[in-house]
Amino acid sequence: MPLESVIADAFGVATICLVAILVLLGLFCIVYSFHFRSKILGQGLFQLNYFTGPWIIRIFYILFAVWWGTGEIIRLNLFRHNGRTLYALNSQLQDNVCKCYIISNLGFAEPCLFLTLIFLLRASVHNTGMLSPKWNWKTASSVLLFCFPMLILQLLVILMGPKYRRELNPKLASYFVEAASTSKARDDVALCTYPLLSTILLGIFATAVTAYLFWLGRQILHLVINKVLQRRVYTLILCISSSLPLRVLLLGLSVLSNPERLLFDAMSFLAFLSLVSCTGVGIYMLVYLPIADSLSLWSPQRYTGTEYAETISLIANESVLDESTMISSSRVSSASGKHGSISFHTTDKDEVFVELSLFNTNQQSTSLVGWPLIPRC
Q1: What phi, psi does 125 have (nearest 5°)?
Q2: Would you say 260 and 9 are in contact if contact means Cβ atoms under 8 Å apart?
Q3: How far apart are CA 334 and CA 328, in angstroms?
Q4: How far apart are alpha carbons 51 and 38 in whole angstroms?
Q5: Which residues pair with 192 in a beta bridge?
Q6: Which pTM value belongs to this model?
Q7: What is the pLDDT of residue 81?
Q8: Which of 149, 182, 204, 364 has the most CB atoms in a 10 Å sphere around its CB?
Q9: Exposed, middle or buried: residue 69 (CB in 10 Å: 0-12, 13-18, 19+)?
Q10: What is the CB neighbour count within 10 angstroms for residue 309?
Q11: pLDDT digit string, tens, across residues 133-152
């Protein structure tokens, strides 16, 4: 077997392994979410309802990630070799599989992934009412609604693009609209490609998402001054805002190579790697950490009644930060030493919260992030 084929198959195996890890992480977080909810309901920890509020959207995010990962496995050329799963299909069916992959992943799963992330981040700078069950279903509907235009455009490119090229513009290069390319070695094998027009549409979406994310990240960072939480926010925003443009760039450059060449497999794998890493970071920071830190916060061995009262007092005092010139530096230093510190700025009379996550500075110190603040008079 040629060395290029061995390396290409290695990329395919690595893709399957990374998707499997992502799926296992997602399933673990789903079980963890249900465990958290049962703990709240079973032990009467109703104060933690604010942390479990967007649990449905978190599960939707994980399901979108699993959907996307499944599509990434299906498009692999690894399954089109002699004797493999998709080899038994004729070239037309293989071509249809590639079309479904583009529509499903580039037109639906990827936009939904990033839109869900944005809505979860938006939940940290809006009123506490949005953590109600009604907000969960309203947000899920909004994600699907905002994704609908991208899905329609990708459908037009995949279904109407080849017909337009054949009948109206034969000079148009095939890589603009074709989702599959016939193998040079065998005419009955179709290899998945990335139509340039589909990539351009994804690039437009990435530009809008990145611009909004920078603006949203600035709003979030204005709400917190704790360096640990700021590092989490910076990491999340940097990861999201860089992975999607990088993926678009690599997919766009993939048209320069034949899908049977190692260069195409390498760029496709790097594009996959950029998004799978971002998705994993999103699951870890927006699904796992809030739950894990909430549970550790309420551990009887680590959180005494005195610490609870001090934390509530700290949060109540922080809620009126704009009305007083500053909080005593010694008090902030003392509170930070025990729990970490976080500051909120608000310009209206509604309750404001940051739900991104809790953070632990060490095993003896925890900080409550996401608790509803006392509304200003």
Answers
A1: -125, 20
A2: no
A3: 10
A4: 13
A5: 180
A6: 0.77
A7: 67
A8: 182
A9: buried
A10: 10
A11: 678 888 889 999 999 999 99
